[in-house]
């Protein structure tokens, strides 16, 4: 694995010194490679003979001493009392296709789009049962709990004892995007490993080597990925041209609104057009795109044009003139508003209201003056 070399070295040293923690918490966004890193570490524990077949079996979820728990919900396939074992074949397909995908993508994969996934008390019983079994190969057993923030209270409490005192040669690896939502009693029992965002070069290499993306496209996607492979893949999936057109409409209407109240009607129409996508992930991707454009404009406005990696390319849009309106006095308000919109979209908020509210607020932020340093 060609990512997170420093973390790999630290984990290797812990194995070499025989200081293997019985419970680890890998904290970071899925797109940063938390699952690939956890699978790599599981392979180091389970594949003592360094065989390629063993490592491949671990990375594809087939090793008999590697167990998984992940959020599930009812679907047409499992209409009642679902647990992880009901979806194990789906899970293996999922991690083979994209180990950088998040919980939303997982629920889409199993046909549960629009529902909330959960790790319930029945799944905690599965964990206890699986960890009580003898190791198939006679060595370590590894349990990966993916997105443990979806554990309900009953399931969390049921796991406290085994996380603190697991059976001999048993390692529990939790992979969380929102570690702050875990019970403090669980956090205190785990060795925390913060997984940082990837470098641009690492994202490029993942796109080319694992997803067969053209190197030129990979470079462009990595430049706007914020170190997140999932964001890079989404930027390739969605048509950036449509995002650019909608961004330009938004900004122009925000400028017009100061002198022409009919611009508010256009902002309303704009918000309804975006809401009509009925695709939460595309909404989040558009918001991420907007945030990145505003950040790039700030860099431009402070005279560092050579550092601008992504900008509006339309010949009808005056990039330099737009950038002059983005500065230290309004960028925080703008980005906070976009982040707030993304937060509510993630929680199934009404997209029509969210985008209309954000669109109108921009009419204030875009005209906010930067204080004169001389005054």
TrEMBL record:
It comes from the Bacteria. InterPro entries: DNA_Rep/Repair_Clamp_Loader, P-loop_NTPase. One of its GO terms (biological process) is DNA-templated DNA replication. Gene3D superfamilies: P-loop containing nucleotide triphosphate hydrolases. It holds the Pfam family DNA_pol3_delta2. PANTHER family: DNA POLYMERASE III SUBUNIT DELTA, REPLICATION FACTOR C / DNA POLYMERASE III GAMMA-TAU SUBUNIT. This is DNA polymerase III subunit delta.
